[in-house]
Write a structure and sequence with these properties.
Layout: H1 2-23, E1 31-38, E2 44-50, E3 53-58, E4 62-67, E5 73-77, E6 87-92, E7 96-101, E8 106-112, E9 118-124, E10 131-136, E11 142-146, E12 154-158, E13 166-167, E14 180-181, E15 190-193, E16 196-200, E17 202-203, E18 207-211, E19 219-222, E20 232-239, E21 245-251, E22 262-265, E23 273-274, E24 284-289, E25 297-302, E26 305-310, E27 315-320, E28 325-332, E29 335-340, E30 343-350
């Protein structure tokens, strides 16, 4: 009986290992097909995938969605007085899309996915206000982060599904150094995984801020990313899980400078290791891990194109030299949407 039990246990263990390996996608992509979804005169830095749709938010008050099944689209526009609204943050719940403008005043709109209603749910007037990134943790709790209006990051929070938002007091937040802020390049300064939040700052200082209790207590970690000037530092971050993360960015004013601009962590952001100095790309605006890759593959949208990294190879492959792409999101482990200046693409990754 013991022998029989041992054989069954061994079989289940081996089957489990095989199944786990099948779940990990770590293909050797060598090329991509870029299919245009839109060529509207629109600067887009904020996109998200909602089932069979890609929602976008951009400049001049524009937002909308494109059906990935039929390519039918919806175009919306929000106008307020004589303001030139530019939306660089987008987030969602099951029923609503939320878009948040940069600059003064900060305006956060809730849009019903059935297009039945648009509601202004938060407004902040301040000469220094500038929100950079927004995400929902679940159906009720969401956060947006922005540049300091005092001596700490600006963070607003909702606990009722986005119906109302409140700004967290600086008394409960870490202090920022002079000249430290965020960059609104791709809606990726704020990363949420389970109850953990990471903020990635840049400028005169470039740090990672982590909270494992939904923003109640914060830890501060130094990074080796280039910093010290107004337009240097981390421009984008992504975490595959609670341990594996990647940050990149560089020097926006010297976009070909490709050292001290890529770093990886395996301990949740506590320590960071620079990789591949003087290789691959310079300034980069967005990084995303490949889904189901075990944190071993990722894609970066940089000033010089789209780059793919596979840990097994320990090298970067440039899959496109398409310029002026700003942001990318995966639909699955071989399909993504990328957007930028006057363009939105569906990208198919191929071996």
């Amino acid at each position: 009986m013991r022998k029989y039990f041992f054989v069954i246990s061994l079989f289940l263990l081996l089957f489990s290992c095989i199944s786990d390996k099948k779940l990990i996608s770590n293909p050797n992509f060598t090329k991509i097909a870029m299919n245009p979804l839109s060529n509207e005169k629109l600067s887009t830095r904020a996109i998200l995938i909602d089932k069979n749709k890609v929602w976008y938010a951009g400049n001049n008050g524009n937002y909308g969605f494109i059906s990935l099944d039929t390519l039918a689209d919806f175009k919306g526009n929000i106008a307020k007085e004589n303001l030139k609204l530019e939306f660089r943050s987008i987030a969602q719940t099951s029923k609503y899309i939320f878009i948040l403008s940069i600059g003064n005043p900060a305006l956060l709109y809730r849009i019903a996915k059935d297009n039945s209603a648009i509601k202004l749910v938060y407004q902040e007037n301040h000469e220094k206000v500038f929100y950079d990134s927004m995400q929902f943790l679940n159906e009720e709790e969401g956060f947006a982060v922005g540049d300091p209006t005092e001596d700490c990051p600006s963070i607003i929070k909702t606990t009722n599904g986005g119906e109302s938002w409140t700004k967290i007091s600086c008394k409960n937040l870490p202090k920022f150094a002079e000249g430290e802020a965020f960059f609104a390049t791709s809606n990726t300064n704020l990363v949420l995984k389970d109850d953990t939040m990471w903020l990635a700052s840049g400028g005169k200082k470039s740090k990672i801020y982590r909270s494992i209790d939904k923003g109640e207590i914060w830890e501060i970690f130094e990074t080796p990313i280039v910093q010290g000037e107004a337009m240097t530092g981390i421009f984008t971050a992504d975490f595959y899980d609670e341990n594996i993360g990647f940050i990149t960015g560089g020097n926006y004013e010297k976009q070909d400078q490709n050292y001290s601009n890529k770093a990886i962590t395996k301990d949740g952001g506590v320590t960071w290791k620079l990789i591949d100095d003087n290789k691959a790309f310079g300034y980069a605006s967005c990084v995303q891990f490949l889904p189901n890759s075990g944190g071993k593959s990722l894609v970066v949208v940089a000033n010089s194109g789209v780059f793919y990294y596979r840990q097994k190879d320990k090298k970067w492959k440039q899959l496109s030299d398409e310029k002026e792409l700003y942001t990318i999101r995966f639909i699955d482990d071989k399909t993504a949407i990328a957007a930028g200046k006057n363009k939105i693409f569906k990208i198919e990754f191929k071996k």
